[in-house]
């Protein structure tokens, strides 16, 4: 049978929470160890109830306490039980403690740790039992005052990492210069950050960037063993709007207006006669007429766009535009007393663009046109349906289509980031 310290060092233990009944089992070959973390000096009480799995002649149960100091464990003493129901009291300082249970036979047992030994306030539950015609009143007068923490706190990163050139001092303050996402060492296979953007349901473009997750441990100066860990995230967005505005400002090209000589060149003495190495050949200039090219206006458009506006009744204007297809699907066969709502249902039913949108998002069966895209947006109190159709035969060879395919292909290498809106559900399947 392993000793208590051997069981602790192997990690075979579970944390014990206050005022919570925790079931466990113990036998002659296996110890049971519980971990207790205290943030203040306190007296902890442990109530054990043992149920033997077979006939018991002699009850012999030992409960020992240990404290972790650095990398070693200090024996704080033990107590022997000869009854199946027993209480164990122990004074704890601030730190990490272990309760080890050993027995001479097999038991199914429960343990309840009474007291605030884990540092958080336990919840007091009242369970009054009254009969018909009886009344009861309870008044809570003693309120625990809030204790201000005036001890200095220290911060350190224990897992994860910050963005390059961003650091955190011992007081938890972040400082440094945010990195250029296009210049990171691991960004050689990514598309330029100017492409990292997405449209919201209203058609507005928003950037996304890279995320760095890190876990911060906060500890008290006088009590280094007392700490709390929590995960944080730093998201650095790209500079797509800066690049766009800078490009537009300098488009099409920078022009050289004049040349300014900063340093006057050294002149040769007038007494020096420079003789050319070869006899210069005079070129004969023959003037040529200027030919002005004619560039007619391109009438072969790439995309045909149609817009349909359907008035949204007042009662339905609170519905998000992205939720209107689902609302129509659930209420298309319903009869509304409001004439405007019923008219809205019929307008959606007869709209070819709305019905094509239902097929496009998978609510209705049918064939999706690969050259047509239907978008639904809000325009004042109207549902705006925009149908964009590419001219046949030009989609595969059009430069915009190729650039869009390249952008989407390159952005698939970026870290996956889920983006949702209030009231929306997100389900992701990674295959």
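Sequence proposed for the structure above (431 residues):
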């Amino acid at each position: 049978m392993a000793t208590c310290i051997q069981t602790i060092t192997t990690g075979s233990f579970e944390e014990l929470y206050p005022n919570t009944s925790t079931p466990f089992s113990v036998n002659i070959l296996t110890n049971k160890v519980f971990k207790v973390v205290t943030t203040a000096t306190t007296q902890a009480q442990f109530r054990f109830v043992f149920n033997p799995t077979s006939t018991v002649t002699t009850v012999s149960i030992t409960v020992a306490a240990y404290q972790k100091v650095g990398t070693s464990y200090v024996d704080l003493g033990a107590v022997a039980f000869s009854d199946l129901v027993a209480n164990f009291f122990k004074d704890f300082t601030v730190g990490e403690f272990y309760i080890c249970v050993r027995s001479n036979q097999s038991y199914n047992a429960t343990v309840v740790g009474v007291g605030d030994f884990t540092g958080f306030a336990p919840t007091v539950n009242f369970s009054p039992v009254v009969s018909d015609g009886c009344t009861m009143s309870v008044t809570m007068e003693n309120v625990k005052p809030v204790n201000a923490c005036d001890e200095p706190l220290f911060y350190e990163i224990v897992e994860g990492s910050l963005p390059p050139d961003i650091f955190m001092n011992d007081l938890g303050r972040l400082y440094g210069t945010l990195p250029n996402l296009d210049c990171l060492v691991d960004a050689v296979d990514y598309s330029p950050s100017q492409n990292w953007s997405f449209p919201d349901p209203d058609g507005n473009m928003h950037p996304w960037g890279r995320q760095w997750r890190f876990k911060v441990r906060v500890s008290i100066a006088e009590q280094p063993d007392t700490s709390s860990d929590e995960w944080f995230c730093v998201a650095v967005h790209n500079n797509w709007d800066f690049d766009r505005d800078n490009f537009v400002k300098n488009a099409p090209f920078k022009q050289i207006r004049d040349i300014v000589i900063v340093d006057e060149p050294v002149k040769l003495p007038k007494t020096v006669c420079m003789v050319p190495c070869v006899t210069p050949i005079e070129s004969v200039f023959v003037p040529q007429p200027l030919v002005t090219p004619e560039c007619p206006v391109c009438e072969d458009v790439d995309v045909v766009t149609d817009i349909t506006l359907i008035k949204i009744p007042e009662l339905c204007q609170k519905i998000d535009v992205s939720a209107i297809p689902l609302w129509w699907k659930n209420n298309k066969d319903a009869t509304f007393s409001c004439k405007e709502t019923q008219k809205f249902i019929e307008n959606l039913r007869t709209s070819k663009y709305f019905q094509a949108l239902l097929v496009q998002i998978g609510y209705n069966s049918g064939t999706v046109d690969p050259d047509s895209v239907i978008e639904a947006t809000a325009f004042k109190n109207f549902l705006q349906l925009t149908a964009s159709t590419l001219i046949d035969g030009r989609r595969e060879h059009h430069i915009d289509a190729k650039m869009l395919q390249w952008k989407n292909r390159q952005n698939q290498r970026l870290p996956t980031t889920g983006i949702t809106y209030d009231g929306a559900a997100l389900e992701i399947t990674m295959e």
